[in-house]
Design brief:
Strand content: 5-15%
Helix content: 40-55%
Mean pLDDT: 96
Structural class: alpha/beta
Largest sheet: 5 strands, parallel
Strand order of the largest sheet: 7-6-5-8-9
Shape: globular
Order of helices and strands: HEHEHHEHEHEHEHEEHHEHH
Low-confidence stretches: none
Number of helices: 12
Number of strands: 9
Distance between the termini: 13 Å
Radius of gyration: 19 Å
Length: 316
């Protein structure tokens, strides 16, 4: 593990702000913490720290991962639901943030506007971690990269193909993560749901440094040669009203047995950030197949989130 990397006091809002060396450091640390956890060894790098977990959006994996990770390393996590603290309603986000920063040593935020987590980072004076916003989901992509590295032994040159809503927080964050870490990323999505040109251009810049490639297309035949097939729900949180039109639009992008066969690669694995709507973006058959590593991926949320907190807040 690179001893030159020091992330103490840093926020984790999007992987845009992290170098490939820093991301590798977090993955190495997560691997080390996972191996210890499997032997029943927990740490005390966060002993005496109090961590605020703000959730405007409900959550299974993110909430559980932050809670268990904090406890494993000796911290006390405090869950604050959006309804309880009314971030930006009764009190400005800035004011709430400055209060929380005086009482807590670190803040996790999962919610709607990405600007909210940026304001927390700008004003709280403590490390802030993005547990998901409408734009980005960086802790998920760390877990995805960890899972891919466990299965293949490396990241550089792995071909990952994402199918579905090509401009949601997962598609955005995967594109950033792959571009930074030298993976070949293909986003297969209808023309109506393609990523923002600005983000695509930025990722192309990262890709030119890491030897990654980024492709965006509406042609499902682009799955050929994929090492990883990745999908996500067709209507993100807060978009439930669009569900019917999305099903119609995205039906051709369903990950099923036929689509997995189109890769022409017997070693292709399937990933999904969960929760999954089986029968929509993925069939039960693929989800439950030996090619599916979705539960390794879910478990790795714990180890990567722990690594982020230990690296940015912990005593090592």
């Amino acid at each position: 593990m690179s001893s030159m990397v020091d992330l103490k006091g840093r926020n984790f809002l999007t992987m845009k702000n992290y170098t490939s060396e820093e991301i590798t450091y977090l993955l190495d640390l997560a691997e080390e913490l996972k191996a210890k956890k499997q032997k029943g060894i927990t740490g005390n790098s966060l002993k005496g720290k109090n961590i605020a977990l703000i959730f405007e959006k409900p959550s299974t994996r993110t909430r559980c991962a932050f809670t268990v990770a904090a406890a494993d390393e000796g911290a006390m996590p405090v869950y604050l639901s959006g309804g309880e603290i009314q971030l930006g309603h009764k009190e400005s986000i800035e004011d709430t943030s400055r209060v929380l920063g005086r009482m807590f040593d670190g803040i996790e935020f999962r919610g709607f506007k990405h600007r909210s987590v940026e304001i927390l980072a700008e004003t709280s004076g403590v490390p802030v971690w993005n547990g998901l916003t409408d734009d980005y989901h960086p802790t998920q992509v760390l877990a995805d990269l960890m899972t891919i590295r466990e299965q293949f032994g490396y990241l550089q040159g792995v071909k990952i193909v994402y199918l579905g809503d090509g401009r949601n927080n997962m598609a955005n964050s995967l594109m950033i993560g792959c571009a930074k870490m030298g993976l070949h990323f293909t986003n297969i999505t209808p023309k109506e749901l393609m990523p923002k040109p600005e983000l695509l251009a930025l990722c192309q810049e990262y890709a030119s440094e890491s030897c990654a490639t980024i492709d965006v297309t509406d042609d499902v035949n682009a799955v050929a040669g994929a090492d990883v097939i990745y999908t996500d729900v067709w209507a993100s949180m807060g978009e439930e009203a669009k569900s019917a039109e999305r099903i119609k639009l995205l039906k051709p992008y369903q990950v099923n047995r036929e689509l997995m066969a189109k890769t022409g690669n017997s070693k292709t694995i399937f990933l999904h950030c969960l929760p999954a709507v089986k029968g929509n973006e993925v069939t039960d058959e693929v989800f439950e197949s030996p090619q599916s590593f979705v539960f390794d991926q879910a478990e790795n949320r714990l180890h990567t989130i722990k690594a982020v907190m230990v690296a940015t807040l912990g005593e090592r």
